[in-house]
Design a protein that fits this description.
5-stranded mixed β-sheet, 5 domains, 619 residues
Length: 619
């Protein structure tokens, strides 16, 4: 019995709600109506007039709508007074009859103040109260005005994180940089004994999707400490002073939970450099940034609190954040190389059933430039494709199709093109592929297709890099321009006409030529000079935007050099494709028949076409 009583006691509500108030209000109304009022007899007006003539009416109160009073009635020989009520009828003789019978009567003056008070004040306040309670319950205590200054940081306990360095792959250098932070959080006495101070702040810099947030969680998971996670945009509100209050509250909470890690994601939303906006800064954001700077200055890192930040726009950060004593260590989380991509694929493929012939090394080789988020999406897309095809395991065809979908977009087989457009697209893509197979510094062609993909691509040519490249020579850049111009030139040679299909190719070719002249110093006429500073990070001495620091005459010379590079590449490609016109037409014919030609099939086709036309296949 005692246990049952405890259960009932535990389930009782701990706080009053608006429903408790409404129920109590209704209860008192019913109590007043049925318990506190005596019985009222409802009579018709004709009966009232008859009783008035008989002298049974003792007194009455007349209002605009009803008549209420007392009457004398006899029941079983007993006479008693009763309360009656009747609806008022427009009767001009009523007052004369009451005076004739000697009945005491009175008119009630109804003051409108109670009605005005209820409908003008009480009812709107009740509606506002109900709306406020709904918002409070819908969005939680954070919507209360008393909690604006509270930090919105989410605290993750160690059992909630469940992330370690085993879950992070492809960024081994960054993991090694952070080992020191983990060691300090685990054994701070080792550093204190030597008088050493751990860095207060660690800034993770890298492209979106490289794993900066995951790496920060892994540091907390390896060290076994609580983890405060908050975005830079969550500090700033429209009310002045709220952001600064949240910064103070966050650091107070961290001080109580030490040792721990404070992680501020998207730091550039909060730490943007002050004074760069010519129209004036955002006062609330700048106050919040100033408070963050003050808190980091006055914070003792030896207590075991490490501040970590992440951004993909380090050039936007205020220089005061990056000086020693604040975010004094920057860790670059770079795009993974071939081995890194393979390691990331293995991590994400643990939960996926794959066929035995799946080669993750080949998949990694086909995805240069992919970051961790891209590779996770690739694994998921391949699994979805396999499920759609009712397969029990994911195979290489699904991985290749997923790569094509991520690189070129969704396939649109139902898009109808007329015969003329199909011929143009087939010769355009064949031109790209033939130039790529003919120039010496090009990656092998993996696939050519004339099936529309994505938003505006009517066809595509995919190349498979043989290795990751970090430097490109002038000859390699010129070959890339030649491949991009191959589609446009092939249209001109075959149809003696050009189309709008080469727009994107021309944009990319022009951009490469512009970089060669303005930044890489690859123009013989302009010399070894760079004309663009570029958007380098602030802590590397860069600026916020590229500035034009040369004359109009120099600008004209730059334009002429860019045009010269493109014109020379155009004539080079035109000569190459004119010489191999029959091979180009044979490739286009085969592509129109099959719509898709894989890499091995393409090389076999080129060998046959070269032999048939008596030409030498380039090595």
């Amino acid at each position: 019995m005692l246990k049952d009583f405890k259960k009932i006691q535990f389930k009782m509500p701990q706080k009053f709600s608006v429903w408790h108030i409404i129920i109590a209000f209704g209860f008192f109304i019913l109590l007043q109506m049925y318990l506190m009022n005596p019985g009222v007899r409802d009579v018709s007006y004709s009966d009232f007039k008859k009783m008035l003539q008989e002298g049974k009416i003792l007194e009455c109160h007349i209002t605009n709508t009803m008549i209420r009073g007392k009457l004398r009635e006899t029941e079983r020989g007993t006479t008693r007074n009763a309360v009656f009520i009747t609806a008022r009828v427009d009767d001009p003789e009523l007052v004369k009859d009451l005076e004739l019978m000697g009945v005491k009567y009175a008119g009630n003056y109804e003051s409108p103040w109670l009605k005005t008070l209820f409908f003008s004040w009480i009812m709107p306040l009740l509606i506002l109260f109900v709306i406020w309670r709904f918002i409070f319950r819908r969005y939680g205590p954070a919507s209360s005005i008393m909690t604006f200054g509270k930090s919105k940081g989410r605290l993750y306990a160690q059992e909630d994180l469940n992330v370690t360095f085993d879950d992070v792959a492809g960024i081994d250098e960054a993991k090694e940089e952070l080992q020191e932070i983990i060691e300090f959080l685990k054994t701070p006495e080792k550093f204190r004994a030597l008088g050493g101070k751990i860095p207060k702040g660690v800034l993770l810099v890298g492209a979106p999707g490289t794993g900066k947030t995951l790496l920060a969680k892994a540091v907390a998971g390896e060290a076994g400490v609580p983890f405060f996670n908050m975005s830079g945009s969550e500090f700033v509100e429209m009310f002045v002073g709220v952001g600064a209050a949240r910064v103070r509250d966050l650091f107070n909470q961290a001080d109580q939970k030490a040792p721990c890690i404070i992680f501020i994601d998207e730091l550039d939303a909060l730490g943007k450099a002050r004074g760069i906006n010519p129209m004036g800064g955002h006062d609330e954001r700048e106050q919040t940034l100033n408070q963050l700077l003050v808190e980091m200055d006055g914070f003792d890192s030896n207590k075991g609190v490490i501040i970590m930040g992440a951004t993909n726009r380090p050039e936007m950060l205020d220089s005061a954040l990056l000086r020693p004593g604040r975010f004094d260590r920057q860790v670059v989380v770079d795009r993974p190389d071939l081995h890194g991509r393979e390691a990331i694929l293995k991590v994400h493929a643990k939960e996926v059933k794959m066929e035995k012939d799946v080669n993750l090394h080949s998949v990694a080789a086909m995805t240069p430039g992919f970051v961790g988020a891209d590779l996770a999406n690739l694994i998921n897309e391949a699994a979805l494709l396999a499920a759609r095809r009712n397969k029990k395991a994911v195979g290489m065809p699904e991985f290749e199709e997923a790569i094509d979908r991520l690189m070129a977009g969704l396939e649109k087989k139902k898009r109808l093109m007329n015969k003329k457009e199909k011929e143009i697209v087939a010769h355009h893509e064949s031109g790209h592929a033939l130039v790529a197979c003919s120039v010496p510094h090009a990656d092998p062609v993996r696939k050519i297709s004339m099936i529309p993909r994505g938003i505006g691509a009517l066809g595509y040519t995919l190349q498979k890099p043989t290795e990751d490249r970090y430097l490109l020579t002038k000859a390699e850049l010129l070959d890339r321009i030649a491949i991009l111009l191959g589609g446009r030139v092939s249209e001109q040679i075959i149809f003696n006409e050009i189309s709008t299909g080469a727009q994107n190719d021309l944009e990319k070719a022009t951009e490469i030529a512009k970089l060669m002249v303005k930044e890489y110093g690859m123009s013989d006429k302009m010399g070894v000079v760079t004309f663009e500073q570029g958007d380098r990070p602030l802590f590397l001495g860069g600026g916020f935007a590229a500035s034009k620091e040369y004359s109009e005459e120099t600008a004209r010379e730059i334009d002429l050099e860019i045009k010269k590079i493109l014109d020379e590449s155009f004539h080079r490609v035109k000569a190459l494709l004119t010489e191999k016109k029959e091979i180009l037409q044979g490739m286009a014919k085969t592509l129109m028949e099959k719509e898709v030609i894989e890499g091995d099939e393409l090389r076999k086709l080129l060998d046959e076409l070269h032999k048939a036309n008596g030409k030498t296949q380039p090595s």
